[in-house]
Amino acid sequence: MGEHAVRPWSNPHERVAVRRGSSFTTIRVHYTCKIPKGKRAEAERALGLHEKGCPASQSVRRGINVEYSAEFEEV
Fold this sequence. Notes:
By secondary structure, this protein is of the alpha+beta class. The chain has one domain (3-74): GMP Synthetase, Chain A, domain 3. The protein has two helices and four strands, in the order E-E-E-H-H-E. The longest helix is centred in the middle third of the chain and has 14 residues, at 40-53.
């Protein structure tokens, strides 16, 4: 079987799982976040620490690549 994306959820926390045959190879998580003005640096730092602090990500990282991205809207 070929590679295809499975989109079981939608924004604000969109997760895309890429499957090759019957195994998942990559999970892409995209966050759409509203943050206070002037807090972009803190929000980007929090995203950078996400993998270390996310038990679900830690449990699959040996066999599945987990990628994170985000859009920040300052309000």
